[in-house]
Design brief:
This protein is α/β, with parallel strands linked by helices. It is built from ten helices and seven strands. It has a single domain, classed as Rossmann fold. Helices cover 32% and strands 22% of the residues. The protein has a seven-stranded mixed beta sheet with strand order 3-2-1-4-5-7-6, sandwiched between helices. The protein is globular.
């Protein structure tokens, strides 16, 4: 089954959510923003509506996901990010977003390195990546010998790569990028609230934050970039 066929089986919600966690990391300004795996473009469109982006460009594997919103983007490419040959100008974008994308790729380091050439010297790459070290995955594996794939989440059946925080940072190092911040994201619902409370009360004293983290959000720059960490 091809990547495109895997994604066709997913619900429309998978491609339409607005990534407020990523939006919060981009300040107001006339930025040029490229999103890899942009889904239906809602995150890009929201950035523009909030005056955080002047020019928004998306790359999406399936045109059907973009069909309703493609006229709201300044430009878009359709295809597998590992196969298409982008023709963007070098040193052009202020921000490049990889929201839950890198774990779906066979060679994420090569993709990161290729697309970082389109990033301004003072620009940022923002990526969100699931954390395989999360305690829910480990408990199922250790206690029940269970490692079951699902339609979404850490064990999404379309994931080709699994990462811990350390391996994520190593990935960016391989791509000649400098990680300047790593933020933990906890799960939703009742269990997510418990995880957040545990982290707030015990995270400073126990090395348990990595077990509670569902996903990391990484902000990176080119090597020797003059960009600020924030």
């Amino acid at each position: 089954m091809s990547k495109k066929e895997l994604y066709q089986d997913k619900s429309s919600d998978y491609f339409s959510s607005v990534r407020w966690d990523i939006i919060s990391l981009i300040p107001d300004g006339d930025h040029r923003v490229l999103e890899i795996g942009c889904g239906n473009g809602n995150t890009l469109i929201t950035l523009q509506k909030l005056n955080k982006a002047r020019e928004i460009v998306g790359v999406e594997i399936n045109y059907d996901n973009l069909r309703g919103n493609c006229d709201q983007l300044d430009a878009f490419l359709v295809g597998d990010v590992e196969e298409i040959e982008p023709t963007f100008e070098e040193d052009y974008f202020d921000y490049i977003i990889f929201g839950d994308v890198l774990e779906h790729l066979m060679d994420p380091a090569t993709v990161l390195k290729r697309y970082s050439s389109f990033l301004k010297s003072a620009g940022y790459i923002i990526a969100s990546i699931p954390n395989i070290k999360n305690y829910r995955v480990l408990l199922d594996l250790v206690l029940y010998d269970k490692f079951e794939y699902a339609d979404a989440g850490i064990l999404d059946r379309s994931h080709l790569r699994f990462f811990t925080r350390r391996e994520m940072c190593s990935l960016f190092e391989q791509a000649d990028l400098n990680v300047i911040s790593v933020q933990s994201k906890f799960g939703g619902g009742y269990l997510g609230n418990i995880d957040r409370r545990l982290n707030n009360s015990l995270g400073k004293y126990l090395p348990g934050r990595s077990f509670l983290t569902v996903q990391y959000i990484i902000k990176a720059t080119k090597k020797d970039s003059p960009a600020s960490p924030w």
